[in-house]
Each structure stands twice: as C-alpha cells, then as structure tokens.
C-alpha cells in the first residue's frame, strides 16, 4: 500500500478543511495517509474518523489581534522569527519521524519545513495551497524570507489553488480550480435538523473567532447562525461552531458574512451562496484574494464598521446579487495518483 504524509499548517482551520476534502478523495484509492498537525487535531479526527494523526508542530503562523481579523505584526515577528531561524533544526528532528514511516509522497499545505526533509531523504514532495508563507510574510527581514524561499524551492511540485498569492517562487507550479468539502447531508435534512422553515431566510456569520461582538437588526422570519462569531445576546441566534461539517451550514444559507479567507469563500462559491467578506489591508493573502474576487465580480467587500448597521429585512435580501455555483476541481487528486503510480 502506498503511503502519504500530509502536513497541515498550524494556523486556522481553512487549511484543514481543504486538506480534509483532498484526503477524503485520496482514501478512496487504497492509500495510507498519515496527517501531521498540532492545532486542528480534534477537528481533523472528527472529520476523517479512524485516520493516523501524528501530533507535531508543522510551522508557526501569524498572531491575530482581538478583532479576529488584523495581523499583529510585532507579535507575529516574535513567534515566527525563532521558527524560521531554526528551520533546519526542526527539519532534522522531523527526519527521524519520516524515516520510520517511509512515505511514497509528502504533501504540505503549506509548511516549508517538510520540503527540506523530503529533499534530504529523496522523497517526492508536493505543495498544495492558495498562497505560501514566503509570499505572506512580507513583513519579515530579507534573510528570513530567503530561508523560506530556499525551503520551498525543494518542492517537486506545487498546486496553486485559486484566489491567493502568485506562488511564483516554486520551480514547478500547476494552477488548478477550487478544492473544498462538499455537504454530506442534503439541504432538506440540514434544515429539518436545525428546525428551519422553507419560508425563513438564513444568514450565516463566520468571522473567525474574534472578541468583537456583532450587532444588527433582523426580522423575525430570519434565522441567524454563528460559526465562531460573537453576536449580541439580545439578538436571537444559534451558535453552530461545533458543527464539524461547516460546509453544510453554508449550503443552506441565503447570505454569508465571512473573513477574506479561502475556506468559507470556496465553500460559498461551490454552493452558489452570495457572500460578504471582511479583509485586513495589511494581509497580503487577503489583498490578493480581494483583487481576484473583484476581477470575477464575486462577493462583496464590507467594512467591519458597517456590520452593526445591517438590517436583515426583505429589502436587504432583494438587493443581494446571485452567486453562480462554481465547480470543484479534482485535478489535484488525479495528480497525486499519477505521482504515486511512479513510486516503487
């Protein structure tokens, strides 16, 4: 049986959700997958069931401010700099782990460290992401950026998902379409489980777990669902943050409010759900996503200060522009299978 070690970056859940979508397809081909991650182990385990997860730090992400959106650059530097300065040491420790497993392929979304080990052990490696930390960490010193550049250069192949940075520093880059989770339950079953009437509108807030409290006005025939978003207690809403298959909540929504991140936006696009998004002007990945979305006239960029002025009435829903459903691209899993066929 062929083996894959799949590294999922220790920053947010967006990387985990799209990795889960890919791994679900991989597992249908009699391939053994071992996941390396430390921040989303419980979520991954509940999503994929009986799968090998070896807890370990894959990389260090940015520090986000209390608003749940903006990057705290000073604190980010404090935690990222030591990781990059000791990247080779972390890679050396990881070498023992990979030597025991002897994988046929290493995949990373989007830690740079595994590519150093893969190169040393002569194991094929693949990057899958819509950005890289080399692109995103434009606030680091040139020397530290160069270390990330050199590490990513070791990847044999990079799969660039849409809506993100250009990732041109990879030597072998292939662009692909959207990859994300598909709903497991159909819409009628989801609505029944959540006691939603067909006459009711559904608004979903998925703003990333910040401490800011959202206030707005809403008609009685509107259901408000929250995914890691604090909503004023005076407003009737349902917290569904523990719902593992979040794409199912997205699939039944009439409109979504989310951060400018790949996870929820890809699930909104592939379910054909209109969405509004917030972005941090200092966040390079989000700025690139914003430009890409505007080029295609997808979604609406909204300022955080405008959230409290929202009123969910019939006039609001009449003004929402429809979102054409986008296809999920399975080229990624086809490429993985092709690579594995060439391995002994």
* Number of alpha- plus pi-helical segments: 13
- Uncertain stretches: none
Oligomer: single chain
Specify Rg, calculated over alpha carbons: 20 Å
Q: Give the CA-CA distance, first to last residue.
A: 10 Å
Biggest β-sheet description: 7 strands, parallel
Net shape: globular
Helix/strand-derived category reads alpha/beta
Helix and strand sequence: EHEHEHHEHEHHEEHEEEEEEHEHEHEEHH
Largest sheet: spatial strand order: 3-2-1-4-5-6-7
Q: What is the number of E strands?
A: 17
Query: What share of residues is helical?
Result: 25-40%
Strand content: 15-25%
Mean pLDDT over all positions: 95
Structural summary, described in words:
By secondary structure, the chain is of the alpha/beta class. The chain is 36% helix and 19% strand. The protein has 13 helices and 17 strands. The protein has helices spanning 14-26, 41-48, 73-85, 87-101, 113-121, 133-136, 142-152, 187-193, 246-251, 262-271, 284-295, 314-319, 331-341; strands spanning 3-8, 32-37, 52-55, 105-109, 125-129, 157-160, 173-175, 201-206, 213-214, 217-218, 222-226, 230-231, 238-239, 255-259, 275-278, 300-301, 311-312. Strands 3-2-1-4-5-6-7 form a 7-stranded parallel sheet, sandwiched between helices. A 6-stranded parallel sheet has the order 13-11-8-14-15-16, covered by helices on one side. A two-stranded parallel sheet has the order 9-12. Helix 2 links the parallel strand 2 (32-37) and strand 3. The longest helix is centred in the N-terminal third of the chain and has 15 residues, at 87-101. It is globular and about 60 Å long. It starts with a strand and ends with a helix. The model has no long low-confidence stretch (mean pLDDT 95).
């Amino acid at each position: 049986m062929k083996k894959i070690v799949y590294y999922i970056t220790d920053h947010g859940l967006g990387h985990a959700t799209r990795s889960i979508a890919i791994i679900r397809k991989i597992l249908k081909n009699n391939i053994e997958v071992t996941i390396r991650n430390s921040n989303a182990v419980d979520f991954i385990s509940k999503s994929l069931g009986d799968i090998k997860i070896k807890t370990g730090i894959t990389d260090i992400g940015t520090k986000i401010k209390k608003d749940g959106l903006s990057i705290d650059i000073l604190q980010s530097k404090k935690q990222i700099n030591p990781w990059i300065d000791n990247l080779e040491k972390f890679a050396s420790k990881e070498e023992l782990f990979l030597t025991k497993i002897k994988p046929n392929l290493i995949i990373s979304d989007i830690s740079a460290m595994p590519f150093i080990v893969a190169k040393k052990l002569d194991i094929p490696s693949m990057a899958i992401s819509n950005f890289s930390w080399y692109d995103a960490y434009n606030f680091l010193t040139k020397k530290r950026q160069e270390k990330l550049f050199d590490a990513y250069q070791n990847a044999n192949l990079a799969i660039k998902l849409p809506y993100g940075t250009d990732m041109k520093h990879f030597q072998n880059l292939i662009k692909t379409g959207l990859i994300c989770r598909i709903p497991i339950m159909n819409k009628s079953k989801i609505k029944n489980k959540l006691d939603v009437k067909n006459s009711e509108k559904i608004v979903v807030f998925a703003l990333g777990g910040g401490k800011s409290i959202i206030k707005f006005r809403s008609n009685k025939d509107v259901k408000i669902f929250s995914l890691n978003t604090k909503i004023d207690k005076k407003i009737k809403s349902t917290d569904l943050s523990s719902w593992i298959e979040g794409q199912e909540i997205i699939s039944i929504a009439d409109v979504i409010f989310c951060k400018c991140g790949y996870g929820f936006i890809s699930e909104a696009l592939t379910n054909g759900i209109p969405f509004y998004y917030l972005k941090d002007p200092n966040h390079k990945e989000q700025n690139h996503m914003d430009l890409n979305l505007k080029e295609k006239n997808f979604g609406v960029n909204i300022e955080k200060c405008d959230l409290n002025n929202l009123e969910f009435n019939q006039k609001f829903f009449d003004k929402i522009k429809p979102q054409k459903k986008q296809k999920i691209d399975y080229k990624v899993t086809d490429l993985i299978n092709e690579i594995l066929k060439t391995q002994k």
